[in-house]
Amino acid sequence: MNGINKFSLWILKRIVKKQVRQEMYYLQDSRSFTGNDVTWWGKNGLGYTTDLRDAHQYTLEDALKRHRCRETDLPWLKSYIDTKSRPAVDFQYLDKAMIATTRSK
Length: 105
What we know:
Blueprint: H1 3-22, E1 24-34, E2 37-41, E3 48-49, E4 58-59, H2 60-69, E5 73-77, H3 78-82
Antiparallel strand pairs: 1-2, 1-4, 1-5, 2-3
């Protein structure tokens, strides 16, 4: 590999590394799951959630710092996890009176 190609590769690695550092991360509490759902740290580190809209987003440095304090807290790249999410319905918010039945009233 000539000097220009080595330099180009070095620059590319630095750019990719910088982009990864600028991306955001979710922090999974891997000690438990809720049904089939992953448990994430909630906003501002207050409690846990399975809803990504309520999950805290960490910088890489913050996520790694928390992971080093407790190895069961796993940092996941937000852009990756967002591609794996799906809509879900939380049963605790369902009103059984809204169930459609064939019974006449």
